[in-house]
Design brief:
The chain is an alpha/beta fold. It contains 12 helices and 10 strands. The N terminus and C terminus are likely disordered.
């Protein structure tokens, strides 16, 4: 009798919930094709409310959001509770001067350019060190609860290019960049974290900083720029470059150019993974944040990235962003059953000290 009563009560509760849902048309908001930043080291109630009504595909973290491991653990937990299950946490972390998990709480990695210097002396040691670097990046991210890190940098700098890339680049040799970039990526993947290769189709020729203004590349000889991305076309994520490549589209930077995205990135390079824009708050881009997001998504980016952390601008971007397709939502996070991961998941997880180059 008691069991039947409990069963009847449970059915009544679910019936009531269904009636409420039907009457008030309650629906879970669809996840938007945008990743945004937040303002500080704590998730504010206003940010939580925004994500409840306009859920992003993820949140990206920077130095302003990170104080120490305890605080970061609390923030990650709060973000997980505020975001859809499929949403990701992304970290702008390369090692060298782009390190948001920084000393004294996390180990420092040398600039990526040290790998290129080692390549010219000892090919095998350079590859081993590159994989260890990726493992260290992946371990730090995985321990912090991060799904995605924005590395490796596959840009090939040329003489006279702006220092914004500089020693973030592995080498001026496209072969070295392609091989060692793949080793970094494999190390990251081995720890269950998604790498993002950048800045596709190549930022190495920019003579001005795209954080400040829009670079233009006039040369038609771009094979060496593309080569590292072609070599890594199977990677799951790539980030665009805010650069005008006059040989392909003299009017629009790659991020908002349907021609560059479809003909160069998707076809010529062969990348079919998730394409995320570089930060749409950067000075290279024009228009208001909403139009920047719409233009990037309409051009073929899967996700619009907006990093400023400004609540009002985040709302504008999320309102403008398309709904992320179910197919792409399913690809956001690392999956052990993905064919790309099978080579990496069988290796035992090392201690962080063992993974340090």
């Amino acid at each position: 009798m008691l069991a039947r009563s409990a069963h009847g009560y449970t059915r009544a509760v679910f019936h009531a919930i269904s009636l409420i849902d039907h009457h008030f048309n309650v629906r879970v908001p669809a996840m938007k094709a945008a990743i945004v930043g937040i303002a500080g080291p704590e998730l504010t109630e206003a940010e939580r409310a925004l994500f409840a009504t306009l859920p992003p595909a993820g949140v990206i973290l920077f130095a302003r959001n990170i104080q120490d491991p305890v605080q970061l653990h609390r923030l990650v937990s709060d973000l997980r509770s505020a975001l859809p299950t499929e949403a990701v946490l992304m970290l702008d972390q390369e090692g060298g001067r782009v390190a948001r998990l920084a000393a004294p709480h996390w180990p420092a990695l040398p600039p990526a350019a040290t790998l290129g210097a080692l390549w010219s002396e000892d090919f095998a040691e350079a590859r081993s060190t590159a994989r260890k670097r990726g493992m260290a990046l992946g371990l730090m991210a995985q321990a912090a609860g991060i799904d995605i890190i924005t590395a490796p940098v596959l840009d090939v700098p040329v003489l006279g290019s702006d220092k914004v890339i500089g020693d973030r680049a592995i080498s001026t040799d496209p072969v070295a960049v392609g091989v060692l970039g793949a080793d970094i990526a494999s190390g990251i993947l081995s720890q269950g974290v998604q790498p993002v290769m950048k800045h596709i189709p190549g930022h190495g020729r920019a003579t001005i900083d795209s954080h400040v203004s829009l670079p233009r590349v006039a040369t038609k000889q771009l094979d060496q720029d593309l080569a590292p991305f072609v070599a890594n076309a199977r990677l799951p994520w790539a980030m665009t470059a805010h650069i005008v490549y006059e040989a392909w589209d003299a009017l629009r930077p790659a991020t908002v150019s349907p021609r560059v995205i479809e003909e160069v990135i998707r076809r010529r390079i062969g990348f079919q993974g998730i394409l995320v824009s570089d930060d749409l708050a950067m000075g290279a881009m024009t228009g208001d944040p909403a139009s920047r997001a719409r233009d990037a998504l309409a051009a073929g980016c899967d996700i619009a990235l907006f990093c400023s952390g400004d609540l009002i601008l985040n709302r504008a971007v999320l309102e403008a962003a398309f709904v992320l397709s179910a197919a792409r939502a399913a690809e956001l996070k690392f999956r052990a059953d993905d064919p790309l991961a099978t080579d990496f998941t069988t290796a035992p997880a090392p201690a962080l000290a063992d993974a340090m180059p």
